[in-house]
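Troubleshooting: if your tokenizer reports a length mismatch, compare your output against this known-good record of 281 residues.
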Amino acid sequence: MSQKILYNESRIFNRNLYDASRKGVQFYYWLDSVFYPGFVGKSSGGDLAMYQYVESGRMRCKSGEKEFISQGGVFYISLTRQRYNWVKCDSKIPVKRQCFSIYHSSFHDYLVREFFPELHIKIVLTDQERVADIMQRIKAEFSGSQAPEKLAALHMELLCELSRQNCKNAYPEQFSNILQYINKNIQSPQLGREDIAEYFNISIRSLSRMFQKYLSTSPARYIIGQRLVMAKGYPQVHELTIKEIAGLCGFKSVNFMIRQFRQHEGVTPGTYRQMIIKKDL
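Known-good structure output:
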């Protein structure tokens, strides 16, 4: 009698080996896996930062004395270096998940905590299709050229989208849609309060009131803040110039980005890049 297969996995490794002299976000592998009902196994874990999108099913795992549950429609990020005693498929349907791993570095952990302060990050997704689309583009890059700058840009896009969805339930639907619109168009230099107000058929005054009520800021300051968060993720990509980073983040000019960077961070983008490099030395 043939043994029933309870686990299926396909993995794509990054052909670019870890480079200690390059201090940015560096990917290790992409993983598609399916756990079928009845599966019980082990997972090494711990050596890498893990990003896991669970499409369906429910899975339990144990680390030390603690048990964790992963379920469909939720995205998980783990920054800890813990190992797991066992992993079980804890549902009547298969657990389908997509994962990728990133080497631990002070820059990576700092970047993620700009969005999420926890070591174990759990985001209940409000728009699985958008996250699934970004994950598929990351997989496509793994299957193709594996360009470090493209993977870094996709990693930043994923963090921005997860952060937006993590906050979605805290706001009324209209304001959540406005934040989603900003996130989707953040790279456009034309994005501003006039564009947003026109798109949602509301007055600029009403738009400003919503931002003040829910975020205690103005639309313009929020947009600049989101662009700066993106900009702080790009200095890791040494192949990009500061001017190219400004364009990718939607700033109308490199001089404007430098002024905003200095105002909010106290240093220029170039100095910030050197500070990030020194943190990992």
